[in-house]
Amino acid sequence: MLSTVARRLGKARGRLGALGALRTLSSAEPAPEPVPLSKLKDQFLNATSSTYLEELEERYRSNPKSVDKSWASFFHSMDMGVSAEAVAEAYDAFERGEVASPLTAAAISNQTIQESMRLLLMVRAFQVMGHYAAQLDPLGLDERPPVKELDPAYYGFTEQDLDREFYLGTWNMEGFMAESRPVRTLREILARLKETYCGSIGYEYMHIPDSERCNWLRARIETAERQEYNQEEKLRILDRLTWSEMFESFLANKYTAAKRFGLEGCEALIPGMKALIDRSADLGVESVVIGMPHRGRLNVLANVMRKPMEQVFSEFAGRKPVKGVEGDTYMGSGDVKYHLGTSYDRPTISGKQIHLSLLANPSHLEAVNTVCMGKVRAKQYYSGDAARTGNMPILLHGDGAFAGQGIVYEALDMSQLPEYTVGGTIHLVVNNQVAFTTDPKKSRSSPYCTDVAKALACPVFHVNADDAEAVVRVFELAAEWRQTWKSDVVIDLIGYRRYGHNEIDEPMFTQPIMYQAIKRHKNALNVYQEKLLREGSVPKEQVRAISDKVQKLLHDAFEGAKDYKPKKGDWLSSYWAGFMSPHQHSRIRNTGVPMDLLKEVGYAVTKLPEGFTPHRQIGKVYEARRNMVETGEGVDWGMAEALAFGTLLAEGNHVRLSGQDVERGTFSHRHAVVHDQKSGTTYTPLEHVFHGQRPKQFTVSNSSLSEYGVLGFELGYSIENPNALVIWEAQFGDFANGAQIIFDQFMSSGEAKWLRQSGLVVLLPHGYDGQGPEHSSGRMERFLQMVDEDPYQLPTIDESKWFVGGHLGSQIQSCNWQVVNCTTPANYFHVLRRQLHRQFRKPLVMFSPKNLLRHPLAKSPMAEFSETATEKDIQGVRFKRVIMDESSTDRSPDPPKQPDVKRMVFCSGKVYYELAAERAKQGKQGEVALLRVEQLAPFPFDLVMREMRRFPNAEVVWTQEEPMNMGAYLHVQPRLQRCMEALGREVPLRVKYSGRPSMASTATGFGEVHAQEQADLINKALDLNY
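-> structure tokens emitted (1026 positions)
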């Protein structure tokens, strides 16, 4: 008697024809073992195969687990009422290769179209909104309303449907909806959906407008069975978590009154970061640069960066570094322990080596973001990492800062820009669920602190910090995403902060409910230990042994710290070997260039390809520049800059210029990138200075409309390698104040705090042309105020080295940065080249001109760019810190006197040309000397005193366009007085001033008022009765 299933199939025999599905079995053979249905290829339902089918069905009825899964699913489908015709069609489709399994096709036949649609909508709801139901808060305080779209009843499914089998396969999808996935009951589907999307991990990726990337994630997230770590992997996670938690508790016990901004509540960050680094190394990463705030920094330094524990403990005692070797005693002003950086070559679990750098940074949250990115971009250039797989940035954030600081978006926006991309940044948000004392509902308008990242199509993985294995899993997934897709990824590590913002703060004042829950809550290590013991994967003795080992090593390091002798930290790359600190004197180098090389470079940077059609006006610009090379006369600002860049490139250096509109130049003076008017293609002459020039050796790029982010990026780029001229140009000098944090916390003080040198150049267009308050001043006074030079301390002057430029010793090395205001193209050329032709690096803030770019008198002959000095006794050609009056020629320290001059007008910048024109008009060349202070900091005491000796009978006047409370006046006044005092001159109570009066705004907005003010200050400067 045929079984029920066999009878039903027999009725469909005519429909099935010769479809091969069951193997013919000999009656002499023993009872057959279960064989997957898809492997059977004989005549369907002949005598022997029907017997075989009956035997399988009997086994299934007695014990469904005794037959192969595919057969069990087959019989279950038949029980659920799949028609014989449906089975026939299913097998027919299977034989034609249209489906992967006849079972899936049969299951589909048992689903109505409406059920299939509803099922797919339900799965999609979990993919889109499952994270709202995920168990993300370790404290259980984040109560959210149920998401109705995650309830099967919302789609019309009932209790009776839970054990029905369904097929989810959809064309061109991965994960649960992949066509190759087996049929499953609705109960099983729901269980896996909840495990995947509503457990300890909340995935957000459905906002990404790229099906391939979404499928890539689904394939790794929506696995058929739950992923588990083996015992070895669990022990590794336990060991790393033990180090993390016990390090914090050890510090808490030993230094109860010290601020350390501990990681308690998010201790799983450490095993997560270590797993991330291990996985990244396996995928080809060789170097990682980390930028992070103070929260958890000591733990990262000790357990990820492997900074010696003895040193960490020693720093809690506040000991300063000992004197360095070779007489170098420079150690700067230092910084608090939770701002410091380090570097380390770390072995990974797979036997690879990976270089880790943790950047020093200030308390200004998120300020380090683009600095880190810039350093990585530089590493990628110098290592030839064009694929951007070998060097990777990791940025850590706080939850309040990630949502609240605009630099976060600026960094994300830069992530895919051609000259700023780093191939993806991994963002780790250490989410305490409170910002200092502010609750999330008062610090952001979005459900998650990470929602800003979704604007840039970044996947976001929220994870419960109490689930150590889930943390490790998403950190590894983030590494895989970054290496595969070269784009940013965000991990939101949701934990808590066991103590206040710092350990001596009282959080119960403002978050009483949260901190009552925290006091009752076990730490992540206890939670994981109990999990391992509960599931029996690690014996109790092994758990205790790990804790005992860590405790002993911490205790030994603490004892060793008492005798630890701190050394000056050095985490500069090898590129910086041989560079000098401020206490190691660097010799002065000339910046002039042989005329042959100047001309060779000049021709190269003015040549456009055959068949290239530039704009008519740009064609004329390049013709004029070529004529400058041929005649050796009239070199203007744009050409001088191109010659500086080109000669540095020819010497093997790297040049990078970025900022808003720098390719053309805000004032249409540069035209470094030329556009073909017919094809739209571009050509950059400076990329072709010499044969074999390295790609990107010259880089010029317009930036996003950001000052803060882009300046930080270029600063990071500059600190990687000293053999590069890195320049950021503001659109107008006024706009630099959008980047004030970088100027204050990094550029002006980075060397003093962290012993990190940078040769970054900042160009700030500056000058009073009647363009109103926002387009006149680059705020020179702010940069001068930050100069760390003592205005009353004269540098030691060795006149025996005067003519070679080495007479000031290390004055410029001892200053924190340089501030210049050039008036000639040649001086601009030399100050740029000076940045690289020295054995140290200093930031250069240059107030660049606007109307001098085309001023007929602001031109220089080629001779001033060459290596041969034209002045008597001067050896070599260098930047002129002070330019003498046109009546003077002698540059010796004690020049011939010019006693008839009655007034010395010191000035800086383009006002000189207006003064010179008016002086000539009034015929006062013999009475008034005009002296240009090209370098305002460090102040050229030696040259100013030289000019005072030259003009012994002249009174001193300072003239500027800026208001009295702005510009350079308050900076130069005490220095001019000190020079007068040193020379025995009468020192006035205040230096005579000709300029605008003190003002709240930088400039007037009325053209007529501007013109009158300008005329008045020029006339007063030249009026001997004023």
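The two ends are 127 Å apart (CA to CA).
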